[in-house]
Automatic annotation (TrEMBL):
Pfam families: EutQ (PF06249). InterPro entries: EutQ (IPR010424), RmlC-like_jellyroll (IPR014710), RmlC_Cupin_sf (IPR011051). This is Ethanolamine utilization protein EutQ (Cupin superfamily).
């Protein structure tokens, strides 16, 4: 993991905790990655797909979902919400004017509201989970 930015942070996430969360998500019939329909990320043309599991429609104060990035994709966005992304599979790089962080399985990236970020997938693509606060509008899905 490389960290060069002071505003976008990537931190290791406990492998055991991540595995427990992943197992719980996949064992809980109410919240699984199979239950969410991944659709092209709003406002862009890249092969980046997202799907919310929990959002305002469920009465939640946050949005929780999954994201899938095809290989070699890039998305630049001004963050309208505070966003935490957990990389579940492969690697991503997140860049701002201040620098770039790279994160792989078990690492989290924090992207604060108001920051303009560019998210890039590597050769393998990537699969992520995300949490936003407040719920992102319009809701993905």
């Amino acid at each position: 993991m490389a960290q060069e930015s002071s505003s976008v942070l990537a931190r290791p996430f406990s492998a055991l905790t991540l595995q427990q969360a992943w197992r719980k998500t996949n064992e809980n019939p109410e919240i699984t990655k199979a239950d969410v329909a991944l659709e092209r990320s709003p406002r862009q043309e890249a092969d980046i797909f997202v799907g919310n599991l929990i959002d305002e429609r469920h009465g939640g104060p946050i949005t929780i979902g999954y994201g899938r990035y095809a290989r070699g994709q890039s998305l630049t966005e001004a963050m309208a919400v505070d966003d935490v992304m957990i990389v579940l599979e492969e690697r991503l790089s997140v860049s701002t004017e201040a620098g770039t962080v790279s994160a792989g399985p078990g690492e989290i990236v924090y992207m604060p509201k108001g920051e303009t970020v560019t998210i890039r997938s590597h050769e393998e693509g990537a699969f992520t989970a995300y949490v936003t606060y407040p719920p992102e509008r319009p809701a993905h899905l």
